[in-house]
C-alpha cells in the first residue's frame, strides 16, 4: 500500500496544498455557518433553518480532520463553533432520526477523541442513546426515519451511523451498544447487500417479527437498481464494522460491495454515475459516491493481502484523481471544493434541483481520503 501511495506522492502533496489553501480561507469565511451546498459560489447555511438535517456534521467533521492534520487553530475554532451551532438540534428530540451518527460522531465525537472535551462526550452519548433507542427488537433492525408509514424502514446509509454505537461501548464498557450495531450490520448483510455485491437502498421490514415486506428504490433508479452512493455507504460502512467489531464476514461484505463499485465505476472512467444499473443515458454523475468509496477502499487495503491492498489502493487513487481532474474547484470564487454531487436519481422536478451540485459530504470525503493518503492515522468514524 505504501509503495503505491509513494508513486503518487507528488499529486497527493500538490492536491493537499490546494485543499489546505482553499479550506483555510473558507474555514474563517463560513465560521458562522453550517453549509450544505453553495449558491452562486457562496456556502448556504442550515443554521436557523433545518438544523436537524442529516448532513450538518460534515462541515465540523471536515474542520476536525484539517485541524488534526495541520494543527491550524483556525480549523479548530470553526469546528468548535459548528458544534455549538448544532446544539439547537439536540433540543429537538422528536425531529431526530438515525443520522445522529453523521451529525455528532463527526463533530462532538471527533472533538472528544482529539481534545478530551467532556461536554463533547456528553453530546455524543446523547446521540448514541438516541440511535440505540431506534432498534426494533422484534424486527431486528435500526429504524431510519420517523412516522407511522416508515416504521419498518431500514436504509443502507445507517452502516455509517453505527460506528457511534461501537464508540459508546468502547467508552463506557456496556456491550449492548456494540451488540445492536452488529445485529444491524448482519441484517444489512442479509437484507440490503445482494449476492452480486449491489445493494437495496430501503428495506421495509415487518415491525413485529423478523421479515421483509418489500424493497424500495429510494434515491436510486428503482427497487432493482443500484444507487451508487448507497453502495458507497455499504463499502465504507462494512469495513468500519470490521474495524470496530472484528468479524471476518464484515470485511468480506466490504470487499464484495467494493468490487461491484469498482467494476461499474471503471466503465465511466472512474467518474461514478448516480445509479450503476439505470439506463446508460442520460449520464448523471455523483462525485460523492466516488470519494466516500475511495475512503472505504483505503481502509480495506489495510486488512487484506499485499496484492489486494495494491489493487484497492490503486483503484481508490484512480477515483480520487478522476474527481480532482473533473469535479474539483480550487478557485476563490467558489466555496465548495467538490462539485457534481447528486442527491438522488433525478426522476422528478425535486430530484433535478439536487442534480450536479456541490454537497458538503463530497468535500468531507475528498479531504478524508487525502488525509489517509498523507498517512494520518486518526479514524474519525
Ligand atoms: N443519507 C442520505 C443520502 O445519502 O443522500
SSE map:
Layout: H1 2-7, H2 9-29, E1 38-39, E2 42-43, H3 58-70, H4 73-90, H5 100-105, H6 108-115, H7 118-132, E3 135-136, E4 141-142, E5 153-155, H8 163-172, H9 176-191, E6 202-205, E7 212-216, H10 228-245, H11 248-266, H12 287-300, H13 306-327, H14 349-353, H15 360-373
Antiparallel strand pairs: 1-2, 3-4, 5-6, 6-7
Helix pairs in contact: 2-15, 3-4, 3-15, 6-7, 8-9, 10-11, 10-12, 11-12, 12-13, 12-15
The structure holds glycine.
Domain tally: 1
Average pLDDT over all residues: 98
Distance between the termini: 21 Å
Order of helices and strands: HHEEHHHHHEEEHHEEHHHHHH
Sequence of strands across the biggest β-sheet: 5-6-7
CATH topology: Glycosyltransferase
Class, according to the CATH hierarchy? Mainly Alpha
Beta strand count:
7
Query: Biggest β-sheet, characterized?
Result: 3 strands, antiparallel
Instruction: Report low-confidence residues grouped into runs of 5 or more.
Output: none
Please state the second-level CATH architecture: Alpha/alpha barrel
Radius of gyration equals: 19 Å
Bin the strand percentage. Answer: 5-15%
**Count of separate DSSP helical elements:** 15
Shape: globular
Q: How would you concisely characterize the structure shown here?
A:
The chain contains 15 helices and 7 strands.
